[in-house]
Amino acid sequence: MANADFSQNRNPTPGGFDAGSYREAKAAQTASPRLTPAQQKLAGLEQALPAALQSQAAAIALCVVILLAAFFGFGGAKLKAKASEAAQWYTAGVSADGGYSLNDELTTRANTAANIITTGSNTLGADNAEVLAAQDALTVFQNDLDGVNAGKTRLHALYEDDAALGAAIDQLYAKLQEQAADPMKMGAVQGQYGQFNSAATIIGNLTYNEQVSEYQKDTGGFPASVLKSLFGVKEVEPFA
């Protein structure tokens, strides 16, 4: 009698039922889908979030917060750059003004006024009423000019000082003309008086105030006004 072969058939008949292959196919169907590298990163970020932020509503709220932070950060940087440029208009001038600046012309007014007062003091006497009035006006003007340059005085105060200085110098020059042999030939003081008034004319023709007005319109509405408060941006004043 031949011996029976009970060894496992290693080559099952094709098409037959194979329990092992069935289990492997079933496991493949139920396994998690393979994630792309980008999806893996997002999944990692989600796992890193606190449990309270892993819900859809909380995630949306977090995205909104991030977007707002990015918006305000970018908008604030742009506003600060624009404010920095506007703050330089007083000293460096507006590009449309061809190199003239408000600070330079006001300084010219102060210097020429001082020269006219010196001539008036030498000609009329240091105790002359017009000389004293002009000197007082110049002192106030110079103090506020220094204050504006130091950021301690408002430009409006200097505007009023300039008007007062102009009136005082006009009166002093008129008094000097009374003492002159020829009021139309006043020598050096006439040239100083001409420069004093020329600076006033240049100031009147500057586009500084127009540029400041446009800047205030651009930064006065929402959200620029909010950003100005958040980032501590100082207001730019007109010369008026």
Automatic annotation (TrEMBL):
Protein source organism: Faecalibacterium prausnitzii
Regions that span the bilayer: 57-77
Keyword field: Membrane, Transmembrane, Transmembrane helix
Sequence ranges of Polar residues compositional bias: 1-12
Domain of life: Bacteria
UniProt name for this protein: LemA
InterPro entries: LemA-like_dom_sf
Keyword Transmembrane: yes
Region: Disordered, residue numbers: 1-20
